From TrEMBL:
Belongs to the zinc-containing alcohol dehydrogenase family. It comes from the Bacteria. Keywords: Metal-binding, Oxidoreductase, Zinc. GO terms for molecular function: L-iditol 2-dehydrogenase (NAD+) activity; zinc ion binding. Its cofactor is Zn(2+). Residues 2-107 form the Alcohol dehydrogenase-like N-terminal domain. This is Starvation-sensing protein RspB. NCBIfam families: PRK10083.1. Residues 145-271 form the Alcohol dehydrogenase-like C-terminal domain.
Length: 313
């Protein structure tokens, strides 16, 4: 089916593709994997009754029969195709997508929230791996842009008692507080280990959304025995770790990539008011100025969070 694009969101991976740093994307390519619009044409075998339907598009296209697909992980399909990476995506007036990837958006969800479904599926995938409960967990989140959606999920969906966010930029920490973080720490000007030790805190769930090679060993050192660590990043740089620290505490280490059928989960969160995408949207550009939007996203890490592109059609 064809989707007439109304809004699209800029992600860090879009910046990497734009700069030629993503090994999976080859030009010519229409980038953009966070997008929302209206179905304006249907192909063979697609219900024409879907014409005019508001949809948010899941960029993950999988084969459905390989081992990962058979165990519910289409996000790591052996033949994985991601819209905006391996195949043309949503930074254009129109996008052609598989019908099953276009998720209907209820009327109660505004357009600006609908375009944010995909970023929140990243949080849904992370929390699906870690399975936090609302009582015993003290998560520490090493923030990146995806850290904020995860904070909202931990607080709004899972009612986690105390969420701690770590970053080196105060403005980012303020954003984290607006998204529900209980305690924020700038590890650029304090000893993180000492700060946690003084309060008697051993994090029981640590989520690395910043993707720096040094963070994994730091997380292993800081974690409570029996804690869980989730890695969200895609760094190609090696991480040096002490294996004894993992086994000695019997830590569980997970990774999370894209999303595994999480669009209906996030749409349900939005309908119930458990998350608030509005807190993350800081800038809006007409799509003709996409290069300006990407450059702002890259340069203004203090004030810029989620940048949207508008398509007035």
């Amino acid at each position: 089916m064809r989707v007439s694009i109304k809004l699209a969101g800029i992600c860090g991976s879009d910046s990497h593709i734009y700069r030629g740093h993503n090994p999976f994307a080859k030009y010519p390519r229409v980038i953009g994997h966070e997008f929302f619009g209206v179905i304006d044409a249907t192909g063979e075998g697609v219900d024409p009754g879907r014409l005019g339907q508001r949809v948010s598009v899941d960029p993950v296209i999988s084969c459905g029969h390989c081992y990962p697909c058979s165990v519910g992980k289409p996000n790591v399909c052996t033949s994985l195709v991601v819209l905006g990476v391996h195949r043309d995506g949503g930074f254009a007036e129109y996008a052609v997508v598989p019908a099953k990837n276009a998720w209907p958006i209820p009327d109660a969800i505004p357009d600006k929230h609908a375009v944010m479904v995909e970023p929140f599926t990243i949080a849904a995938n992370v929390t699906g791996q870690a399975k936090p409960d609302g009582t015993g967990y003290r998560p520490g989140v090493w923030r990146g842009p995806m850290g904020l959606v995860t904070v909202q999920a931990l607080k709004g969906v899972y009612n986690v008692r105390q969420v701690i966010v770590v970053d080196r930029i105060d403005e980012r920490l303020a954003m984290a507080q607006r998204s529900g973080a209980d305690w924020v720490l700038n590890n650029g000007n304090l000893d993180l280990h000492k700060a946690l030790e003084e309060k008697g805190i051993k994090p029981t769930l640590i989520i690395d959304a910043a993707c720096h090679p040094s963070i994994l060993q730091e997380a292993i050192t800081l974690a409570s025995p029996a804690a869980r660590i989730v890695l969200m990043g895609f760094s190609s740089d090696p991480s040096q770790i002490v294996q004894q620290g993992i086994t000695g505490k019997e830590l569980s280490i997970f990774s999370s990539r894209l999303n595994a059928n999480k669009f209906p989960v996030v749409i349900d969160w939005l309908e119930k008011g458990l998350i608030d995408p509005e807190k993350l949207i800081t800038h809006t550009f007409d799509y003709h100025h996409v290069t300006d939007a990407i450059e702002l996203f890259e340069k203004d890490q203090r004030q810029c969070c989620k940048v949207l592109l508008t398509f007035d059609q």
